[in-house]
Write a structure and sequence with these properties.
The complex is a heterodimer of chains A (460) and B (481). Chain A has 460 residues and is α+β, with helices and mostly antiparallel strands. In chain A, 21% of the residues lie in helices and 36% in strands. Chain A has helices at residues 7-15, 72-90, 119-122, 126-142, 203-212, 233-247, 250-254, 314-320, 354-358, 412-417; strands at residues 21-37, 40-58, 61-67, 146-162, 167-182, 188-195, 225-231, 275-277, 299-303, 306-307, 344-346, 363-377, 382-395, 398-402, 406-411, 419-422, 427-429, 443-445, 448-458. In chain A, the strands form 4 sheets. A 6-stranded antiparallel beta sheet of chain A has the order 3-2-1-4-5-6. A 5-stranded mixed beta barrel of chain A has the order 7-12-13-15-19. The longest helix of chain A is centred in the N-terminal third of the chain and has 19 residues, at 72-90. Chain A is globular and about 70 Å long. Chain B has 481 residues and is of the alpha+beta class. Chain B has 10 helices and 23 strands. Chain B has helices spanning 3-14, 71-86, 119-132, 202-206, 210-224, 241-253, 258-261, 332-337, 373-378, 429-434, and strands at residues 20-36, 39-57, 60-66, 103-107, 139-157, 162-180, 183-189, 196-198, 233-239, 292-295, 316-321, 324-325, 347-348, 357-358, 363-365, 382-394, 400-412, 415-420, 424-428, 436-439, 446-455, 460-468, 471-478. In chain B, β1 and β2 form a beta hairpin. Chain B starts with a helix and ends with a strand. The model of chain B has no long low-confidence stretch (mean pLDDT 96). Classes of the chains: A alpha+beta (460), B alpha+beta (481). Chains A and B meet through β1, β2, β3, α2 and α4 of A and β2, β3, α2, α3 and β16 of B.
């Protein structure tokens, strides 16, 4: 943006270069990130960058071009690239994209208000970051362990304008801190906090929780097999992120490739499981609209164990037919990546603590975090990965001693089918991986207890 | 004033405020086209330009990036980088490995600039490849992709370096996903996860036989729907070169990143089962047949360049010689931390808005003497042949891994037998590489490009290549998923 120019004004300036139907999305990111290892700062990064994405629709085809240069000449050239692509595509005959959402579907008045902006976070002051790191270093030094992790804060403005009359803007902030406490013998524990505001990130407090997960004593080992498990929110959150892509992507579902193909309105999980995409939930990282400017709205996905809906963008809604409309889950204008939920909320249960979840387990596993998880069989939601940073043996109803990390190979839906109980208070968890332009998201989830967790190998 | 002069002037102004400073300008353009189920699903053209400034104040680093390519923009980024470094908790000033002051220009090989090729030609190729996958109704998704990228870099540092580079990348691939019989099965060519990309021009795409291979890819995807499940047990496996590339990437390349050994990435990417002390010992990493090099000078490799993003000249050196560990992948800071005089030249950044971190260059296994893949199969009495990566997972020390491939075939009496679906195998890094007993010859050695290696916070995607030939391993656990 030129000095004093708002994202909406920049988007309007870019749109003026379009000939035909199209949309311009402006995303302005400012962010800070401080990494640390062995209780010392290692890398500190500040980013100030803006993307201008021009999307052109012609005869059912979508052409797109992106730049971060803002002169009129650059914006004109970017628009030309998008228009030329769409024109070339249209030469092959009509395409299947139904067109950008109509203004009636997405007026500015419909865009929901949210609490996703914090002015103090947006100031991006590096001093609190240094203080948070110092707090973590102090707490871990007192415990005789070392601190590793990251502190980050970001402020992102998004504006979308289109030739159909759309003119909307949104602004969000996010803060995140992760502390891994590591003892000399390589045993680790991890804790994190994520929120709209970075001002609540207390390095010493987070480090204290991480230290508690390091555990005492020599780790036990477990042979492969099926064990009762208590999954901490961090572990549940990662499983649900994968489920979001494998089961609730409306494009995969419409093509019969989704994990819930043919299973909507059937029991797919235990009755204790109610999963919603709730972009305006107080605990999540809210946002007003999706990449096509469609207002975000709450979508029930699993209700008391029964699969109810999948998510849609404009393209997948058209594929689904039956008058289906976008649910506000486009990841890209035109829907090339397919839709996905970005604000999953798993409803809490009755257990007042994780200790209560452990109580009925005679011999099982407590898992803090899952790592390097990958899809083995998409239709079965079968994943494999490792436990990490706080794996414990549960014996006689309580956490008894550290457990060497294990490899699991199991189905997310099967784990949810086996779920017996959840803690009452969910919290926001995220891995805060910011590849490309910053898009903060997370899962609000409690801890859960499941009857069978399939261990396929060990790490030591 | 040239951009390089602007950067050099900026660095000169920083000299009194920090112990080290570098500035990197990058201008990049990328194109992606995807044809899926008869339609163009994606046609993107992305451009970006900006400056990243990294400084060291005491022992603390600060990095700031701006899209404002001007003297004012660069100076503001420098000021922000300095403020960021000063806000860090105090850290001791560790040395950096020496780097020569260099100047010059380097460009990757490119006969036909992919950005000069008509858009319509690229579309025609993809439509033809996608159409050649056929129209069997069991194919829920038929996809052909093309990608190209060009990055122009300028770099100046307080070590006296002032250089420019131009890197071209180009590639294509296809995949077919079949649905039926309660199964979802995908086959890809030449590799999964986005096709085969090389640091070459359009001429590289012309070497990939998308149209010719498409019918086989579609047939195999459909055949997998009803193929028997891969049996579980311990047996001999033969890995195709593409799966070998990922095996090298995950269990050798990442494990030998020196920042991981020094615990610098412990909370995110993880550490390593290899320690710095192992670099001066005689750690046996695998069998005598295992020789692995890091080579940033390899023509066409996605990990090739003239200088890394700290201005260190491209190098080729052995990481493992005849099974014995010899060296690690390093940048200036990690090299100095273990007493090395020079960096391994592995500092790479994903665009102007990311700082350089330790990354692989081209990490490759030396070819062996087992002849062709057909020779190796003929030499194998009983086993399992595995092709094209489908899933991958490894622990945070790069020790215990589990891989799945798109397809497997039983080997019986030196011949390929039944196709099996959902094949997988697992192992422990040094034991697995210790079981290596044959590597195919140079005729079957190929440089495979991987364009999606994630590391760092904020996240960075890096392009790397791995030279690999099909190879055989004894007594491996298979059918684990």
């Amino acid at each position: 943006m030129t000095a004093g120019e708002a994202p909406l004004e920049l988007a309007e300036r870019a749109l003026a270069h379009l000939d035909g139907d199209g949309q311009v999305t402006v995303t302005h990111e400012r962010s800070l990130m401080s990494r640390f290892a062995r209780s010392a700062p290692t890398q500190a990064t500040e980013i100030d960058d803006t993307s201008i994405e021009v999307t052109v629709v012609r005869d059912g085809h979508v052409g797109s071009a992106t730049t971060n240069r803002m002169s009129d000449e650059d914006l004109r050239a970017t628009a030309r690239h998008a228009m030329a692509a769409a024109r070339a595509l249209a030469a092959s005959g009509p395409g299947g994209f139904p067109g950008l959402p109509a203004p009636a579907d997405q007026s500015a008045a419909d865009s929901p208000a949210h609490d996703g902006w914090d002015a103090a976070t947006a100031a991006l002051d590096p001093v609190p970051a240094g203080e948070a790191l110092a707090g973590a270093f102090g707490a871990t030094a007192e415990a005789g362990v070392e601190a590793f992790g990251v502190w980050t804060a970001g402020a992102v403005h998004t504006a979308i304008v289109s030739t159909s009359g759309l003119r909307i803007a949104d602004a969000v902030t996010d803060g995140f801190m992760k502390v891994m406490a590591r003892r000399d013998d390589a045993r680790t524990g991890l804790a994190l906090d994520a929120a709209v505001s970075s001002t609540r990130l207390d390095g010493a407090q987070i480090a204290g929780r991480a230290i508690a997960l390091v555990g005492d004593g020599e780790p036990a080992t477990l042979p492969p097999g099926e064990y009762p498990v208590v999954l901490a929110p961090e572990a549940v959150g990662l499983l649900l992120e994968f489920l979001g892509e494998l089961a609730f992507n409306g494009q995969l579902h419409a093509e019969g490739r989704g994990a819930l193909a043919g299973r909507l309105d059937t029991q797919v999980a235990a009755s204790a499981i109610t999963l919603t995409d709730a972009p305006l939930s107080a605990m999540t990282l809210p946002r007003a609209f999706d990449a096509e400017g469609v207002p975000k709205r709450t979508v029930p996905l699993i209700d008391a164990g029964i699969a109810r809906n999948v998510c849609h963008d404009t393209r997948s809604a058209a594929q689904a037919g039956g008058g289906m409309r976008s649910t506000g889950h486009a990841r890209t204008p035109g829907g090339a990546d397919g839709p996905a939920p970005a604000n999953l909320v798993l409803a809490g249960g009755d257990a007042i603590s994780e200790a209560e979840l452990c109580a009925p387990i005679e011999r099982g596993i407590y898992v803090t975090r899952l790592w390097y998880v990958n899809v083995v069989h998409p239709g079965q939601t079968l994943l494999t990965g490792m436990t990490r940073d706080g794996t414990f043996l549960i014996e006689d109803g309580r956490i008894s001693r550290p457990l060497a990390d294990v490899r699991f190979t199991d189905s997310v839906l099967r784990i949810l089918e086996q779920t017996q109980a959840l803690t009452a208070a969910p919290r926001l968890v995220t891995e805060a991986e910011f590849y490309g332009r910053r898009f903060a998201s997370g899962v609000v989830t409690p801890a859960l207890r499941a009857d069978g967790f399939r261990v396929s190998g060990g790490a030591d | 004033m040239s951009i390089l002069d602007l950067l050099a002037e900026l660095i000169a102004t920083a000299s009194g405020d920090c112990t080290y400073a570098e500035a990197r300008h990058e201008q990049s353009v990328a194109e992606h086209i995807t044809v899926r189920n008869g339609e163009v699903e994606r046609a993107d053209h992305d451009e970006s330009e900006g400056i990243g400034v990294r400084v060291r104040v005491g022992g603390a680093w600060g990095f700031a990036a701006t899209r404002e390519v001007s003297r004012t923009g660069a100076q503001e980024a420098l000021a922000r980088a300095l403020a960021l470094a000063r806000a860090q908790p105090a850290a001791g000033l560790a040395p950096l490995a020496d780097v020569p002051a260099v100047s010059g220009h380097w460009a990757s090989p490119c006969e036909i600039d992919p950005f000069t090729m008509p858009f319509e030609d690229k579309l025609a190729l993809l439509h033809a490849a996608e159409a050649a996958l056929g129209t069997d109704p069991r194919l829920a998704s038929r996809e052909a992709t093309f990608s190209a990228a060009r990055t122009r870099k300028a770099f100046a540092s307080s070590a006296g370096t002032a250089i420019t580079q131009e890197l071209i990348e180009c590639g294509a691939g296809l995949s077919a996903t079949a649905v039926g019989n309660g199964e979802i099965q995908t086959r890809s060519f030449p590799l999964s996860h986005g096709g085969e990309v090389a640091s070459r021009g359009w001429e590289h795409v012309m070497t990939i036989d998308l149209v010719g291979q498409a019918p086989r890819v579609a047939e195999e995807a459909i055949a997998l729907l009803t193929a028997p499940v891969c049996p579980a047990g311990r047996q001999t496996i033969v890995l195709h070169g593409e799966q070998m590339a990922l095996q090298i990437h995950e269990s050798i390349g990442h494990a030998l990143e020196l920042d991981r050994m020094l615990l610098g990435e412990a909370s995110y990417a993880g550490a390593s089962w290899v320690t710095p002390a192992d670099l001066t010992g005689d750690l046996r990493y695998g069998s005598d047949l295992l020789t692995v090099t890091a080579d940033a000078t390899l023509p066409g490799g996605l990990g090739s360049f003239g200088w890394d993003d700290e201005g260190v000249p491209a190098r080729r050196y052995d990481l493992i010689q005849n099974g014995i560990l010899r060296a690690a992948l390093s940048n200036r800071e990690s090299a100095a931390a273990v007493g090395l005089q020079e960096s391994g030249g592995c500092a790479r950044a994903d665009g102007f808005a990311r700082q350089p971190i330790v990354r692989m260059t081209n990490v490759s296994i030396a070819s062996g003497a087992a002849g062709t893949l057909a020779d190796l199969i003929a030499d194998t009495e009983e086993g399992l042949y595995l092709e094209t990566n489908r899933s991958w997972s490894i622990d945070d020390r790069r020790l215990h891994f589990q891989f799945g491939t798109e397809v497997g075939y039983e080997i019986r009496g030196g011949e390929l037998g039944r196709m099996v679906r959902n094949p997988s195998y697992a192992g422990v890094t040094p034991q697995f590489w210790g079981s290596l007993d044959a590597v195919c010859s140079a005729s079957d050695w190929h440089l495979w490009g991987l364009a999606n290696c994630g590391k760092g916070e904020p996240g960075q995607l890096m392009r790397v290549s791995h030279g690999a030939a099909p190879a055989r391993f004894r007594d491996v656990q298979v059918g684990v998923a």
